[in-house]
Amino acid sequence: MADASVSESRKDTAQTVRFRGGGFAPKPRRWTGIAVFAVLILVMEWGTQSGWISALTLPKPSDVLRTLVELYQSGQFTAHMLPSLTRLAVGGFLGAVAGTGTGILIGLFSYARSGLVPLVAALFPVPKIALLPLFVIWFGIDEGSKYALIAFGTFTPTVVATYGAVDNVDRTLIRMGQSFGLSWLSIVRKIILPGAMPGILSGLRISLAIAIILLTAAEMLGAEYGIGAYVLQAGSLYDLDRLFAGVVILSLLGVILNMVIGFLERRLLVWRV
């Protein structure tokens, strides 16, 4: 009788334990990021309007917005944006493709790892902007040097991220594929590449951000049109409205590229719960 009462009390106090496996799964909160930007802009607008923030330090966001509108209406936005997008697309694509391919080779083949990892380790810490004069000598002051700088700057972080992602693929899955008699190519295509894809895409986020930085630096040397050239002209005239307008354009470009990577993650990583 006592045991029955104890078991009943335990049932009364028992609580359902939720499944913890998806506890860290991200949930979309679409308006949170917009709200953060809105609050920051409102604080800056209030600070500059009230004089709490000096006009020599930070322009009014409303003035920056007006500058962006004027830039678009005058046609200068397209004149500066198209060359920048072309340079970023060509250089970033070449660097990302070459870096991903090289990283996969390093992750899969011992000879490639032994021969290329020391080379990548030597090239990775080299400041890419410092090599711009060298690329100008090699490829000329026109578009070739800009493509090469962006591609080289995108290449090394993509290589490191890719072969690190390949190394982190669960070896148990590979052994399971071998035990089921899958061929080497099937294991690479069905196990290694899907397992490494999250790390590869995360590396691309960093690589493309570096590409935007190098794009700006390359356009500051010998470019008549481009966002970097626009920012350099505004800075030389100490025109803060135009300077911050160029910074806003670069920031929006980074946000758009981040959204593109997020779209690819949703498409390519549908297997991930």
Automatic annotation (TrEMBL):
Q: Which residue range or ranges hold the ABC transmembrane type-1 domain?
A: 81-261
* GO biological process assignments: transmembrane transport
* Principal subcellular localization: membrane
What compartments host this protein?
Cell membrane
Top-rank taxon: Bacteria
Give the stretches traversing the membrane: 34-55, 88-109, 116-141, 147-166, 199-223, 243-264
Entry keyword set: Cell membrane, Membrane, Transmembrane, Transmembrane helix, Transport
Task: Please identify the protein, giving its name as recorded.
Answer: ABC-type nitrate/sulfonate/bicarbonate transport system, permease component
- Topology of the protein relative to the lipid bilayer: Multi-pass membrane protein
- What family does this chain come from, according to its entry? Belongs to the binding-protein-dependent transport system permease family.
GO CC annotations, alphabetized: plasma membrane
